Amino acid sequence: VHQSKLDFFCKLGYGKQDICKVLENLGQEALEDDVLKELIRMGSKPQALETQAQPSPLKLVARGSCSTTPGLMWLGGDERDPSDALRPIVIDGSNVAMSHGNKEVFSCWGIQLAVDWFRERGHTYIKVFVPLWRKEPPRQDSPIADQHILEELEKQSILVYTPSRKVKGKRVVCYDDRYIVKVAYEQDGVIVSNDHYRDLQNENPEWKWFIEQRLLMYSFVSNRFMPPDDPLGRHGPTLSNFLSKKPVLPEKKSQPCPYGKKCTYGNKCKFYHPERLHQAQLSVADELRAKIRIPLALGKEEERCQCSA
């Protein structure tokens, strides 16, 4: 009897020690209801309820980090890494550096600002293309600032040098823009540059569409990298949707009716009427017909009552 009661209350989730104490106090022949009341009076709780009562500790994740814990899910509802939903980023290093240096100095700090901005958003695939001759010591006709940043980004496998060499004292430079567009096209990513690449658009019709739809322009405001909130214009996608593989569509908000309560279109009105949320939207003609039918119906009932009497 003792073992059967012990097994029964163990299945309910109570601890063996609490069950044994109650059985010793009430006796082995005690009813199950009495044992359960005593367990509740002692304050004993099933283990399932105890685990639900204890809140799970929250984990703080650094901004831009990639967490693979199953409990943290992104807005799309998948258990995948949120960074998988972001497009790869390909940065035109020469364009960004010269823009930050006011077209006078090759400012490597501008490249670092752009890379940090995308890192904070959670992008993991970031590539910067710079010609190889930028590793050479700076000259008067081509000044470079903060050149050590290029070495640091190269160690992080972010910076890629496009090839160049010297033939009979003359520098032969490969076209770095073609590298930028080709890699971004293959990765289905975004090009960060203020250049329009018109020569490459005329060269390949597929690249033409890609450059028109995936070119992200930018500005530097007091050492702050600032891309536009509407990369493709006022009627295009937002910046977050532009940089995401799965854009989030905004909810359709109907425009309120300019006539308000004075509107006579009824249910045929295409605008939003907040005062008609809990009302049947009938046209004016239907409302008049409904009002006429009510007294007619009452008159017919009175006639029937008189006839029956």
TrEMBL record:
Its cofactor is Mg(2+). Belongs to the ZC3H12 family. This is ZC12D ribonuclease. One of its GO terms (cellular component) is nucleus. A zinc finger (C3H1-type) spans 251-276. Keywords: Endonuclease, Hydrolase, Magnesium, Metal-binding, Nuclease, Zinc, Zinc-finger. The gene is Zc3h12d. One of its GO terms (molecular function) is hydrolase activity. InterPro entries: Rege-1_UBA-like (IPR040546), RNase_Zc3h12_NYN (IPR021869), ZC3H12/N4BP1_RNase_Reg (IPR051101), Znf_CCCH (IPR000571). Residues 251-276 form the C3H1-type domain.
